[in-house]
Amino acid sequence: MTYHQISDEDLDEFIKISEKEGKKYSSREDARDAASNLVGFFDILIEMDMEHRRKDTRLKDEPDGFAFPSKGRSCSLCGHHIEGDMWWDKWGQKCMDCHEAFKKKIIPGYCFKDHDNEKHITLSKISWKFDIPTQTLKKMIREGKIRVRTVKGNGTMVALRKENLNLGDILRKEKKELEKRRAEKAK
Ligand SMILES: [Zn+2]
What we know:
The chain is mainly α. It is built from 6 helices and 6 strands; from the N terminus they run H-H-E-E-E-H-E-H-H-E-E-H.
């Protein structure tokens, strides 16, 4: 973060406002640090807002979206941190592999905005949420208990709710059997 030069006048004003809000700084330097951090924080917010606006403006001319440097951001579907370019469209930001799967209609667009997992869930998230090893889940896929769609390249597997209507029940049942096996092993 860059250091922000705050004038004495502005600092006086900042201290006054802070006191009104019930915040008292022990020294002028403390107040200056706090003000400087705040300015830095707002700079980031403004920069983010400007970027959003620039992207929205571009989307009007390029409705299918466009590539942009990821700067270490992560994909909203697979969650991977991305080096190089990402894709931006009305569904938000995604890595190139996931975008390719979207273009080929393997992954529906709504998955990228379904942050609460109401309509989809990735296999790694199932594994984490239900504490079931990925190997077990892959076996369940082979047995036809879970239906997934796979993103070519990064290998992310996605289960759609509409194709896995009883997923919750199936996973809970598997989890119980898993715990039984674990308990027997521990004997
Ligand atoms: Zn991705």
